[in-house]
Amino acid sequence: MLRKQMRFEVPTNKERYQRSVGRLIYLSLTRLDIAYAVSVASQFMHSPTDDYMAAVICILSYLTSASGRGLLFKKHGHLDLEGYTGVDYIGNITYKCSTSRYFTFVGSNLVTWHCKKQNVVSRFFAECEYIGIAQGICEILWLRWLLTEIGFKQRTATKLHCDSNVHSM
């Protein structure tokens, strides 16, 4: 008779986990390469286990090995604003929700990046696409206002590119 193997999750030091992830959240504001991994780790702040702590340690070891890397901004001769949006329809199987993401570039340099589970569960693909586009437009409007405030008024219309991935359940 075969027994089903049961896996027990071993809790870890909650305070240490929260302190480490909190510092990584702050760091992810300037290190976009770890932003997604840190956002996933932050979902388990209330009941961390040894497996989650091992993932946090992997992020920390990556940071020590990639200390000289960063974003490079180049002068391209223009400050045109351009945005990209994308939606992953029901891409998160755990929570059954869609994921929106957008990127914005000023002068061909990446300045903002965002990836977030949508707050509502969309019944149709077009609905979740609309939500993602609306979030991208809000970011573009904010950046246009910010650039105007610091003296760089946009003279042309801002391009917003949309792309999406449809996944079946």
Question: Could you outline the blueprint of secondary structure elements for this entry?
Answer:
Layout: H1 14-27, H2 35-41, H3 50-65, E1 81-92, E2 97-106, E3 109-117, H4 125-149, E4 159-166
Parallel strand pairs: 1-4
Antiparallel strand pairs: 1-2, 2-3
What does this entry show, briefly?
The chain has 169 residues and is α+β, with helices and mostly antiparallel strands. The protein has helices at 14-27, 35-41, 50-65, 125-149; strands spanning 81-92, 97-106, 109-117, 159-166.
Walk me through what this model shows.
By secondary structure, this protein is α+β, with helices and mostly antiparallel strands. The chain has two domains: 14-65; 81-166. It contains four helices and four strands; from the N terminus they run H-H-H-E-E-E-H-E. The protein has helices spanning 14-27, 35-41, 50-65, 125-149, and strands at 81-92, 97-106, 109-117, 159-166. A four-stranded mixed β-sheet has the order 3-2-1-4, with helices on one face. The longest helix is centred in the C-terminal third of the chain and has 25 residues, at 125-149. It starts with 13 loop residues before the first helix and ends with a strand. The model has no long low-confidence stretch (mean pLDDT 81).
